[in-house]
Amino acid sequence: MTIFTDTMANSSLSLPIMEPRDADCVIEARGVNVYYGDFRAVKDITIKIQRRKITAIIGPSGCGKSTLLRTFNRMNDLIPGSCVEGEVFFEGCNIYDRDVDPVEVRRRIGMVFQKPNPFPKSIYENVAWGARINGFRGDMDALVEQSLRQAALWDEVKDHLRASALTLSGGQQQRLCIARAIAIQPEVILMDEPASALDPIATLKIEDLMRELVRDYTIIIVTHNMQEAARVSDYTAFLMMDKDRAGMLVEYGPTDQVFTTPRDKRTEDYITGRFG
Fold first, then answer.
1. Start-to-end CA span in the chain (Å)
2. Of all residues in the chain, what percent carry a pLDDT higher than 90?
3. The pTM is what?
4. Can you give the CATH number for the domain in which 241 is found?
5. Which of 124, 176, 242, 260 is 20 to 30 A removed from 59 (C-alpha atoms)?
6. Which DSSP letter does residue 275 get?
């Protein structure tokens, strides 16, 4: 991956190192509980996310998959009435410490949503916008091209960069949103069911893209698609609802192990379609 020097003006927002860092772990959640008002959506989640691997979060609807994903870059802060308890360490820093700027957290841990959400701007400006507001001072044309290339979209749009992003197909729009996330040079990319609204061909392009991107980024994906999780991920976390309807982590491990020799009967039942 090309490194742009003197890019983001973020030195005043750097995250302090609080604990010794495990070189293989980029994010670690410890005893995480998330509440929406009085309702506990997820409870007592403890998990380590491995660096430059794809981790899939699977489980039935309503078990807190997206809620857990949003704890990794403080997106739940934007939901009125939400409250997060526990600790989430990113590169040794608890991102929920009082002195940590959530905007800087979200720059370093980017997010791609379920439904493509390009801005009503040109293709070029969609990619450039985030970098620009984050203080990028390098060659913007080069950054836009590199981001679109990494998102496997450059060859399709290079002659139409000033066209509206809304003229792109759904799959192209989702890859544009991935390029937009890449442009601010994150270390982790969160993806909340990024292919659920796409046709099978566009879905395969997104999956192929994830396997390319994981060379440079850590990726965490929420998916309802068992085949997708099995195809693209290195690690899988299975969540389900407890008796109080709070999502809990049932099993976490290498994807091959979780799908072929799960340790918990509930994991096996879900993967084989007995419930969910």
1. 40
2. 88
3. 0.90
4. 3.40.50.300
5. 176
6. -
